[in-house]
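Table S2 (text version). Query chain:
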Amino acid sequence: MKLSMDLASASSPAWLEAVLADFDSFLQDHANCERKASSMAMHFVAKYPDREQMIPELIETAIEELEHFQQVYQIMSDRGIPLPHRIGPDPYVGQLMDLCRTTPQDRFMDRLLVASVVETRGAERFRLIAENLDDEELQKFYKMFWTSEAKHGHIFVKFALWYFEEKEVYDRLGFFIEKEAEILAGLEIRSALH
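Corresponding structure-token output:
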């Protein structure tokens, strides 16, 4: 069984151009995204302690994302790039979260599926970066991220399938994928993951 769905749109060449033109800002945003991803995985643990089946993988994911933060921070440190003093809201994730339903069961499913879509988009973008950087070490670095994010996109769908009917999960995932493409098309292009 396929544990994700293809994205409804590809990232634009203009986005890639913006990232490559200001890679320092991209690294700062990437570090913040990894930190927030670790926090999000632990949020699921704290919010849904009764969903015991998924807790071990969520903890592993949180640790992996925190290690990713450490790795990005090391590259930043080596290049003399500071962490930003302020972490602003992510309009991409915010708009996806605004689509989540409010009843407890529906919200649980929707948050899992939003996490999957965000990770899947991250994988697509890390692949583009890996394929277009001139620096060989950074190419390897972002290839590793691409593989990891694709895996994370799958585990959140797997979790949803543990707790909800398959048709319901894939119908709702399809909804988020279509909306994600619309959201992405409306965002300002900047040197950031989203």
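Notes on Table S2: Residues 13-186 form a domain with the Ferritin fold (CATH 1.20.1260.10). Residues 104-132 form the longest helix (29 residues).
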